[in-house]
Specification:
It is built from 3 helices and 5 strands. It is α+β, with helices and mostly antiparallel strands and 145 residues long. The protein has a single domain (5-142), classed as Alpha-Beta Plaits (2-Layer Sandwich), CATH 3.30.70.1700.
Length: 145
């Protein structure tokens, strides 16, 4: 069954939204975090920066077998008086996001998600925020007709 990239993004977003304290940013992925005013504690954005074909054979009836990268960018506040604890709390929040997205639930199961890695996890220059990215990969069919 073909799955739209939009559906993957929405389902992953719903899983992250279920993690205690997290809420989706009003800014889309790629914009979230650029403007310091867009960064709030436990805000996140989900994007799908790329989709690539897995095999050359594609049919209009079945679609193309593709791998879509799903990126979750999140922000976590660093408390000035206890920065190490704040960093550890951010790592705990990151782990909770991974657990929620990788949960074997009905709405996520057909996405065939796997954890690709954590390409960035850094404290901003002012030392106020930890902004991290978690990448997942979804193997699915993309409709061609």
């Amino acid at each position: 069954m073909a799955i739209a990239v939009k559906t993957i993004r929405q389902r992953v977003s719903a899983a992250v939204d279920a993690v205690a304290g997290f809420s989706e940013s009003k800014q889309p992925s790629g914009v979230f975090g650029r403007d310091p005013a867009s960064v709030l504690h436990k805000r996140y954005a989900v994007g799908c920066p790329r989709t690539t074909t897995v095999r050359d054979r594609q049919t209009l009836s079945e679609g193309a077998l593709v791998r879509t990268v799903v990126s979750v960018t999140y922000a976590h506040r660093v408390k000035p008086k206890d920065q190490q604890t704040s960093y550890d709390n951010a790592l705990d929040a990151e782990a909770a996001i991974i657990v929620a997205v990788m949960a074997d639930t009905g709405s996520l199961q057909e996405l065939q998600l796997s954890l690709s890695g954590i390409p960035t996890r850094q404290v901003d220059q002012a030392g106020e925020w930890i902004v991290g990215d978690i990448e997942f990969s979804s193997l699915h069919y993309l409709a061609m007709a």
